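Q: I'm writing up a methods section and want to include an example of the input and output format. Could you take the sequence below and give the corresponding predicted C-alpha cells, formatted cleanly so I can copy it straight into the document?
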Amino acid sequence: MNSVKFAIPKGSIEEATFKILEQSWTKVRRRDRTYRVVLDDPQITVKMLRPQEIPNLVFDGLYDVGITGKDWVKETNADVQTLLDLEYGKIKLVIAIPDSYNFKSLDEMILSYARKKKILRISSEYLTTAAKFIKQSKSYKKLYGSKEPLIITPWMRIGSNKNVQIFLSFGATEAKPPEDVDAIMDVTETGTTLTQNQLKIIDTVMESTAILIANKSSLKNKAKREKIYDIVTLLRGAVEGRKHLHLFLNVRTQNLDRLLKELPSLKRPTISPLSEKGWYGINTVIPKSELHKLVPKLRKIAQGLVVHEPKQILALEEIKRDEEN
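A: Here is the clean output for your methods example:
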C-alpha cells in the first residue's frame, strides 16, 4: 500500500495539534528545519501546512487526510468528508465594529450606510464567508438583490456592488478600523484582542473547532480506508481520553452495592477481591465532569482513591460498526 498522506496545521493550532498527536501515537518527531513530521507508523506520511490550504489540498487528492478548522472548510467550499471533531482550537468568527458606532447588527449597518450613500468597507481573511454572510442580510437583499459585494485583493477585484466592499486582510485585522475599514470579520477566542482595540462584536457568523477531514476518493480505496480508520480510531481515543478519568479505589464488602449505585463507568466497573478478606478493588472510567460530585460520596464509603488521566479511550467496536456500514 502507498502511504496515507496526512496534512497537519502550522500556526495558531499547531501546538494543540502536536499534543493530540502525542496522545495518539507513541512517537511523534519533527524533523529539524523542515515541515516533515514522523510518526511511529511508516504507512503515514505527515507534513505541516497552513490550515487555510489544507481543505483544498485534501479535496484535490494531494493529501488523503488533514486537520484544519471548520471555518476554513466553509471558506474554501472544499468537498471533503469530515471524519471527526477534534474539539480543540475553538473560536468564533464574528463581525466587529468600533465601540463608538451605535449599530447592533451588520444588517442595520448595511441599511444605514445605503441611506447615507456611504460605501461600507469590511476587512477579513474570509472573503467567501464574508460575501455569503453579507448577502444573507435582509437589508442587503432588499437594497441590492443578488449582486455580489466587491471583493478587493492586491491582485484582483471581483463582484459588481461597489457600495459594499470586502478587503482581503493579511493579518492584524483588528487594527484596520476605523481609519481603513468600517467593520471586520475575524476570529476570536475570548474577545480580549477585540476589546483591547476598542471593538465590539455585533454578529456571530459561525463557531469553529479543529476537525479531521478526508479525501472522498481515498475513502473508497480499501487499503487507504483501513489506514484512515486507524487514524480516526487513535485520534478519537485521544479526544475521549481528555474527557474522562480512570479511577482506582478500595471498598469494604458491606459498602460495595452502595458504591456501585453511585459510580458511573463506560460499561460496568471492574471488581476484584483484595488479598485482605472483606475488601474489593474497583477499577472504572468516569466522565471528568462527574469527579467533583463523587468525591463527597466516596469519602464516606471508600478508601485509597487513585485518579489517572487516560491517554486514550479506544471505542474499537464503534469503529468496526462504522467500517461495516
